Every structure is written in structure tokens, then in C-alpha cells.
Description:
By secondary structure, the protein is of the alpha/beta class. It is built from six helices and ten strands. The strands form four sheets. The chain has a four-stranded antiparallel sheet with strand order 4-3-6-8, with no helix packed on it. Strands 1-5 form a two-stranded parallel ribbon. Strands 2-9 form a two-stranded parallel ribbon. α3 packs antiparallel against α4 and α4 runs antiparallel to α5. It is elongated. The N terminus is likely disordered.
Amino acid sequence: MPPLRVLPAVLAALAVTAGGCSGPRGRGAALRPPEVLVEVLPRSARVELDGRSLGPGGGAVIPGDASDGHVLRIEAEGYEPEERVLPSEGLAGARIAAALRPRGFEAVRAIDYDDAPALAAAAAWLAEEGDPRDAVEYAERAIAVDPGIALAHRALGDARARAGEGAAAVAAWAEYLRRAPDAPDAPAVERRMEAARADVRAP
């Protein structure tokens, strides 16, 4: 499985000149600003910091006032938006991760970026009702957290099939059947695999 594409957004405070330094190397040296890693699902989500856009998934360096907190807002069409208030201190090395909840998805109360079962359930729903590209992202994240979640592999296959990626769909379904050979839907998945294989072989 290809590694998860990380969506990095770097939050930087205003550069602070190091005080108490002497000599040519120390004079005027700036302290390394704190950084916060933002990981977002879906990756097309719009990320804003204090009302200023970081673009899809983030990716901008924003100067800020280190004495104040910051508000991070994440939103995407078809998803419930999320806001996080970032503390003004202790940002260095921090990680903020969010998986937005699709509107209409009621299987779980909330989706956590590191909760493989919830991500897999959302991926399965998205594979049927949402954007298959988003379903792939949620399924791949679920598998990255816990490869043993069989539902994530089935959802990945369903999403790949909807996206017209027959060979990738077959591979994901095969992994699902390997992990859940006695699943009630196993015969149906096998039939879909055979149909997808035939399509891949067709000239």
C-alpha cells in the first residue's frame, strides 16, 4: 500500500532574535519558530488559521502572535466543519489531526484520525454515497492505523471500483477476503472480483 500522503501545515510564530548572545555567530541569530503538523481528511479540505487560508490541506507558513491562541478551521463540501483552538504555548512539535465527518453519515458519533474502525466505517459509507477519492483516503488511513480492519480493505476495493481502477479494486477485495473469508458478503465480493478481473483482461 502506498504510504499515506501527509498534509503538513506549519504554524510559525514571529521570529524571535536570540538574546544574550555574543560574537558574530550569536549576534542576530533567530530562534527556530514552533511548528505544528496538521493532518486532515479529506485531503481536499480547506484549512484556515485565524481566518487566513492555508489552502487545501494547509501548506502555508503563517506568522502569528505568540502571546495569543489561534483558531484552526477545517471544512469541505459535504462534511461537517471542525474548529480547533490552538494553545499559544507548547506548539513546537505538536500534531493536530482531524477526520471530518461526512454529512449524512450516522454510524458513529465522531471520527478520530487515529480510530481505524470509525475511519473504515466512514470509508465504506463514502464508497457508496460520497466521493470515491475521499473513500480511498479514509480507507488508506484506517489501514495505516490498523491493517487488520477487514472493512477498510473492502471499502478500499469498493472505492477503487467506483473510480474505475479495476486491478487495484481486485487487490483490495482479495485482501478483504483473506482477512474475512467467512464474511456474509464474501460470495458477493468474489463475484465482483471476477467481473473486475474480466474487465481488466478485456482489450
